[in-house]
Amino acid sequence: MLHLDMDSFFASVEEKLNPRLKGKPILVGGTERRGVVASANYAARPFGIHAGMPMAEARRLCPHAVFVEGNPQKYVHTSLQFLDVLKSFTPAVEPFSIDEAFLDLTQVPYPGRPSPEERDPAVILDSAIPVAHAIQRAVQRRVGLTATIGIAPNKYIAKMASGVQKPRGLTVLTLERYRERFWERGVQELWGIGEKTKEALAKLGIRTIGQLAKFPREFLTYHFGLNGERMQEAALGRDENPVIPYYEGVPVKSMGHEITLSEDVSDKEALKAQLLRLSDMVGRRLRADGYLGRIISVKIRDSKFRTTIRQRALPEVVDDEHEIFHTAALLLEEHWDGRPLRLIGVSVSGLVSAAGHYQHSLFGQDEHRRKLLEAVDSLRDRFGETSLVKAGVLR
Ligand code: DCP
Ligand code: CA
Q: Which residues belong to the active site?
């Protein structure tokens, strides 16, 4: 598996498009008062600048840097360009973020590929080095930017490997080398572990990745649930997830909408009106994208930012906003204690593709309702979302 990560992506795109910036420290991000750095090129990094840092602080650290507001369209365009380059090597390309992708090379018949009998993981992985170099050259030539690559037996280690040496890096890690290199290090170096998890692990005496790998699994599960298991698998360097090629798309796990209220609300009827509106949006999206779901969730956040999510499974999958709203309103009744809320949301998960899945009950028992939903959808398609509004939403 190969993971590719573009070097200082936004900043490099700006540098490429404006030759006068070449070689200078470049910071892309919000340049207004409360803006933060989104991307700093490598000329800016020796000054201690990193993504997420307030722009004002970056300005103090490196006053002579070039500050660029940034333009998402350019980055999306460039992202599609380098994905095209990757697809010329194999169709098994999984776009992972705007500047990252995974490639599955197991089916690529590149020259120098070891025979299927080869068992030494180092030999197998090393044989892909020329392919990685060819990819880097092609990205440089056709997109004009540099990229860093990690090669490993699975996606997780490949992602960890690409972080080892940047920019223009190429790192190969077998499972054994991964453990040698990372087990001594702090758990926060694991992809997916943030500050909060680090602190929670420290309470159990787990500080290094190796300690996490060797910790009794049942304790981790007890404290972190399924996540405990996932973290330990990551520490062990085990990952069975396949590359999901771009043409198969990422499976949708849930669909939802939420809204931050313009002021805190503690009037139940007003909250229900919001739930009705959100359920309406979710139902419409489910139908438009061809999904049905069984688990309805309501998310509420109070004025002190305490967030609660409650869910309920229905006996069968639905895409009808009335069913969604009905369950969402019940969840609100049961789990909301009257505190003022600043945010409310509705989502549907446990999704299945609607193609061929329309249960007979939906058609049989209530064809009338389905026709009504279709009529409302088509009116909104033609005249806009607000052309028809439920009376309950108006309040
Ligand atoms: N990004 C952002 N805000 C962040 C982090 C990243 O807007 N807090 C954007 C800008 C980055 C792009 O996503 O250019 C890719 O993120 P990376 O973390 O890969 O960072 P870079 O590509 O900029 O740098 P590196 O060379 O370390 O990968
Ligand atoms: Ca990057």
A: 100
Of all atoms in ligand 1, which is nearest to the CA of residue 52? Answer: 8
Query: Burial code of 135-170, b = ≥16 C-beta within 10 A, e = fewer?
Result: bbebbeeebebbbbbbbbbbbbbbbbbbebebbebb
| Ordered structural domains, the chain, with CATH | 1-174 (3.30.70.270), 183-236 (1.10.150.20), 254-394 (3.30.1490.100)
What is the full DSSP assignment across 166-227?
-SS-EEE--HHHHHHHHTTSBGGGSTT--HHHHHHHHHTT--BHHHHHHS-HHHHHHHHTHH
Residues lining ligand 1, CB < 6 A? 5-10, 38-39, 51-52, 98-99, 166-167
Nearest-atom number in ligand 1 for the CA of 10 is: 14
Residue nearest to atom 7 of ligand 1 (CA): 38
Q: Give the span between the Cα atoms of 253 and 349, in whole angstroms.
A: 6
The rounded average pLDDT for each run of 10 residues, N- to C-terminus, in the chain (395 residues) is: 98 95 94 87 96 94 94 92 96 93 94 94 97 98 98 98 98 98 97 93 97 96 90 96 79 87 94 96 92 94 91 92 96 95 95 66 63 89 86 81
Query: What is the value of pTM for the model shown?
Result: 0.69
